[in-house]
Amino acid sequence: MSSASKIEWTELTWNPVSGCTKISPGCKNCYAEKMAHRLQAMRAPGYENAFELTLQHARLEQPLGRRKPTVWFVNSMSDLFHEDVPDDYIDQVMDVIRRTPQHTYQILTKRADRLPRYFKTRSVPGNVWLGVSVEDRKYGMPRIAHLRKVDAAIRFLSVEPLLEDVGELDLTDIHWVIVGGESGKNARPMDIEWVRNIRHQCEDSGAAFFFKQWGGWGADGKKRSKHANGRLLDGQTWDAYPGSATPA
């Protein structure tokens, strides 16, 4: 299922895989899990298994039907590099990506250790932005080193939900950093100084900085309305993209 995305840094979502399993604290309040169960209750095609990992073969060629250059977020409802997704299925996804050079594909994973193994004998398509999730020091930060081992045109970090001060990041060869707080009724708070720390490091390293949202908490450390200054950091929005690339 492809659809217009509510994610601020992309345009459309493409889900050739759905479902996942939790592997780190960032997964605790997974929005995709909640959405999958809601879609199952609505009897939406492809969600008969709710959040069990499912290869969605019928969706593989969806981007081929769109000529307009588009930024696609791949697997907003799963993780393409989940251990139960076979290499040959990932190959099929990459084949569609190569056949649609007019599009840009953002692929984000928490299974960063699989990236250098998979791409050891394969090249990353030039229209792929490859990223890893970095929610904390213990689980998130080690993923950056795995990402850096892969030769991708754009490497990015999704620091969301940011659960603690991550300290000093090695942003060598990282082109883009997205930061966001957790949303939902059980959202964990995010301190403004944690965000500023990352922004300053992006400015020093030359990485583009994108502040996505405060989520369920405000900069003042209090629960807040999702509509109240949800993207303002120090009085402004931060919407930088790597290089000159910007979704239309």
Overview of the structural elements:
The chain is α/β, with parallel strands linked by helices. The protein has a domain at about 5-155. It is about 20% helix and about 15% strand. It is built from 5 helices and 10 strands, in the order βββαββαβαβαββαβ. The protein has helices at about 30-40, 85-100, 115-120, 140-150, 190-205; strands spanning about 5, 10-15, 15-20, 55, 70-75, 105-110, 130-135, 155-160, 175-180, 210-215. The strands form 2 sheets. An 8-stranded mixed sheet has the order 1-2-5-6-7-8-9-10, with helices on one face. It has a two-stranded antiparallel sheet with strand order 3-4. It is globular, with a radius of gyration of 17 Å. The model has no long low-confidence stretch (mean pLDDT about 95).
Order of helices and strands: EEEHEEHEHEHEEHE
Low-confidence stretches: none
Strands, count: 10
Helix content: 10-25%
Mean pLDDT over the residues: 93
Write down the oligomeric state. single chain
- Rg measurement, Å: 17 Å
Apparent shape? globular
Strand percentage lies at 15-25%
Largest sheet composition: 8 strands, mixed
Strand order of the biggest β-sheet: 1-2-5-6-7-8-9-10
- Structural class determined from secondary elements: alpha/beta
Distance between the ends: 21 Å
> Helix tally?
5
